[in-house]
Write a structure and sequence with these properties.
The strands form 4 sheets. A 5-stranded mixed beta sheet has the order 7-8-9-6-10, sandwiched between helices. 31% of the residues are buried. Strand 7 and strand 8 form a beta hairpin. The longest helix is centred in the middle third of the chain and has 29 residues. The chain has 11 helices and 12 strands. With 327 residues, the chain is an alpha+beta fold. It has one domain.
């Protein structure tokens, strides 16, 4: 059955005539970002940049070609997500992870789709062929296959291919914070009341690696600066992950079953590389620049790295109420 399902990364097929998910001919389309989200946070006429910063779009102009079946399925999924969103943290915490994965995946893949088109057209203009490395083709092909579970009999075995963390978060009303990393398949989403971080293809190992801090924030209402630091930890863990997630695809009469294979560290093949505090501080400063915090503030000579999550001396969780920065 895997051979029967559409895979745009085999021939790099990104065409407005074909449904992005199933490959069927279509005249239908849907927005990359859900309409209610753009309306609620007034995003429609805001600009979003491509990765190389040389091209930008209005949010409302980002659209994906879809079959009517896929469009209806995403609308039903989006209604389920919005119902949880409207209930705040409790609603999101109760939402099943596959719904968060698929809702997030629509946005992450939608932006990836535009990155593919932009790069293809850019190379075409200068007479070069559009290519992707074998590694990227595999990663994106698996991701696309997993998204097809929305409309195809594609199922996940017990170990899921993602890490998703949902937590309480304090923002001023109607503030939305999100980051999308389509190449590394990462997503961060925070509003008044809750936030979540999704690593969409790590086989759960980043969530396991960050379990201690996730356990400590359970029941706490995070300050936004803590939210940014937490996402930086997930992002950096993804950056230093040495092993490539692998899967077993099992076709049966009932559908396609995806088994996410566990990763095990060995002396010669660790799951994660060295956590370099200097490099992490550089990444973290990008997320903290809104607070005026630079890398030199995070790493200082003969001092532990600045953290708003863990006290570097007691190793205790820092209570959000003790943080004086604005939110």
């Amino acid at each position: 059955m895997a051979e029967e399902l559409f895979n745009p990364f085999l021939d790099l097929t990104f065409d407005e005539r074909f449904c992005f998910l199933t490959g069927s001919l279509t005249n239908e389309e849907m927005t990359v970002y859900p309409d209610w989200l753009m309306d609620h946070f007034k995003l429609r006429d805001e600009q979003i940049e491509m990765m190389d910063k040389s091209k930008s779009y209005n949010y409302s102009d980002l659209k994906l070609p879809v079959s009517l079946e896929v469009k209806n399925a995403f609308e039903a999924l989006d209604a389920k997500f919005k119902a949880a969103f409207d209930q705040g943290y409790e609603g999101m915490k109760a939402l099943d992870e596959q719904t968060i994965f698929l809702w997030t995946g629509r946005i992450v893949y939608g932006m990836l789709y535009y990155e593919m088109i932009y790069e293809r057209d850019r190379l075409l203009r200068i007479g070069k062929e559009f290519k992707l490395s074998i590694e990227l083709r595999k990663r994106f092909s698996y991701f696309h296959l997993m998204l097809q579970s929305l409309v195809e009999p594609v199922y996940f075995k017990e170990r899921k291919p993602w890490s998703i963390a949902v937590f309480q978060l304090k923002y001023s009303a109607d503030i939305l914070s999100f980051r999308n990393d389509s190449v590394n398949l990462l997503f961060q989403f925070g509003v008044n009341g809750f936030g979540f971080i999704a690593c969409l293809q790590d086989n759960g190992v980043i969530g396991e690696e960050q379990k201690d801090i996730l356990d400590q924030i359970e029941g706490k209402v995070l300050h936004p600066v803590q939210f940014e630091e937490l996402y930086a930890r997930f992002h950096f863990a993804d950056y230093i992950m040495k092993q490539t997630p692998k899967y077993e695809i099992e076709p049966t009469d009932d559908g396609l079953f995806i088994t996410s294979l566990p990763m095990e560290s060995t002396p010669t093949n660790p799951v994660f590389g060295f956590w370099d505090e200097d490099t992490f501080a550089q990444l973290l400063s990008n997320y903290w620049q809104v607070y005026g915090i630079e890398k030199d503030d995070i790493i200082q000579f003969q001092k532990p790295r600045l953290s708003f999550l863990i006290d570097p001396y007691s190793l205790d969780f820092i209570e959000p109420e003790s943080i004086k920065l604005p939110y």
